Structure formats: structure tokens, C-alpha cells
Amino acid sequence: MVSGLLGRVAGAMALVLLASCGSSTSPYGGGGGCTPTATKVCMSGSQFSPSTLTVPAGTTVTWQNGDAVAHTVTSATGSADVYNSGNLGGGATYTHQFATAGTYPYYCMNHGANGTPPTGMHGTITVTP
Q: Which CATH number is 110's domain given?
């Protein structure tokens, strides 16, 4: 009798666990909450996607954190345009307008390394006239 009750309790617990694993209501869990566009870069899995983006001068680029861990968007050494988003939590966004044609390397201070070029989690914005 006790083993039958324990079996039913264990079965009920398994159903609750399976139900909770079904689908997440969080738009940012697992990096699935961000879709790149022509002017949006996603941060997920310690990488920027796309890692290179080409836009015309005057364009505002948006970065969105699709992870549950914090990322930054930080201009690399030697960049003609200096910017730093600070830590961006899951789902947070950062925007920056690129006014002048050029190539602008950037990186995540938490998952990359500054340099010419940066390494680790990094990307490049190319701005055309």
C-alpha cells in the first residue's frame, strides 16, 4: 500500500516536471528570444549574430541580449566611434547611431577581449556612405 502511494506521488511529480519543461513563456530563455534583422544584432551563446553587419551612414543599430547572462557592446581599441552599453541583462537592448562611413569593431567585455582586432565574443559594423 505504501509503495503504491509512493508510485502515484512519483508519477504526479514526473508529470509536473514534464509540464514545466514543455515551453517557456520567457522570450529570452536559451537565446531564442532574438531574431537578427538588417539593423539588429542578437547576443546569444557568447556570440553576436550576425557577427558582421553592413549599414548605410546614419543608421541606428540595435543589439538585443537573447541570453540569460549579461553581455556588453563595447567599441574596440582604435575605433573612430567610442561607445559602451554597460551590462545588458536578458532581453535588454542597446542602440547606437553610426553617422560616418567606416569599419567599427566591437566586443563583449564579459566574453571577449579588446584588441585590434578584438577576440572572443566580437563583431564588426561596416558603415557605407
A: 2.60.40.420
